[in-house]
Amino acid sequence: MSEKSTNHKGTDRTTPAADSPTPPPPPPPTTTWNRLPKWLQEMITFFWELVRRIFTMIRSLFFLVVDTVTMVLPSSALTSRRDDETYIRELREELTGVIENLPLEPEQKNVIFKNWLPQLIWTNGRANRERNANELIRWWQIILGVLIPVFTTPVAFGIAQTTGTAEAAGNPSSLGVTGVQIGAVMGVFVAVLTALAQFRRPEDRWRHYRILAENYLMELWDFITLSNEAYKETKTHSESFPIFNQRMTRLRRDDVNAFFSEVTSRTMDMDEMKKQITDLKGFLITLKEDGKPGADKDTAG
């Protein structure tokens, strides 16, 4: 069935005959899964894939909720005051190091260090403060505005009218706090926040200071790199400094005019404040009438 052949070194090697059959592959190992019927294997595979998809969907929804809450939280909840101070300190150190290496006269550097750099740093800090104030006021307005109907309409939401007991009914001083009273306190808090927001205008102030801080920073970097059109006619930083000082002064002058003509002029006047107080009084009177013990009986009758 086999023949011998001799290679060039004189050694013999045996070659298989052409008609020898190929040995069959070894049988697969027998496992518990292979012993199951095919219909049962398909059913288990189907349910396993279904469970895997359900867990994947639940995980996706969980991360969606977490990411949503993280994205809509106020900036003060994500970045602490220390983070803002660290950023401002690093910005000051970076700009100080760059300005120190510029070929400027000592008097020119002194103007930047004593005038424009502190103005830039102060504006940045003020913008962060107004941003935090605006977001916190808005957040409390939204949360309390949603919770007020829950406490002022307890029947619709399945909340008891009072936490007091039947024994305490004869003693008004021992009665528990009602949902209407909690709603009234929340309403007062929302009214105060709304009045403060209209009086201080933190959103307008934040936009104003942020735009001014960015303008200061861009102008300073344009002067450092001499990349603005205004510095094309000059060759050195010493020659460009009067132009830079003039442009920064113009920014400050425009800032003062814009602040007193746009930001402070839109603050709430006395008539608007009186309207807020009148609306608050009407709201409290409505809550007081709705919270009377006989109100529900009269309605039912």
What does this structure look like?
This protein is an all-alpha fold and 301 residues long. It has eleven helices and two strands, in the order ββααααααααααα. It has a two-stranded antiparallel ribbon with strand order 1-2. Strand 1 and strand 2 form a beta hairpin. The chain is flat and about 95 Å long. It starts with a strand and ends with a helix. The N terminus and C terminus are likely disordered.
Keywords summarizing the entry:
mainly alpha, 71% helix, 2 domains, disordered N terminus, two-stranded antiparallel sheet
List the helices and strands and how they pair.
Elements: E1 3-6, E2 12-15, H1 32-35, H2 38-72, H3 75-78, H4 81-100, H5 106-152, H6 154-157, H7 179-200, H8 202-225, H9 237-263, H10 270-290, H11 295-300
Antiparallel strand pairs: 1-2
Give a short overview.
With 301 residues, the chain is an all-alpha fold. The protein has eleven helices and two strands, in the order E-E-H-H-H-H-H-H-H-H-H-H-H. Helix 5 (106-152) runs antiparallel to helix 7 (179-200) and helix 5 packs antiparallel against helix 8 (202-225).
- Summarize the main sheet: 2 strands, antiparallel
The number of distinct structural domains comes to: 2
Strand content: under 5%
Oligomer: single chain
Radius of gyration: 39 Å
Q: Structural class of the helices, strands and pairings?
A: mainly alpha
How many helical stretches? 11
- Overall geometric form: flat
Uncertain regions spanning at least 5 consecutive residues: 1-12, 162-176, 291-301
What is the residue-averaged pLDDT?
76
Distance between the termini: 112 Å
Proportion of residues in helical segments: over 70%
Strand order of the largest sheet: 1-2
Topology as H/E string?
EEHHHHHHHHHHH
Number of strands: 2
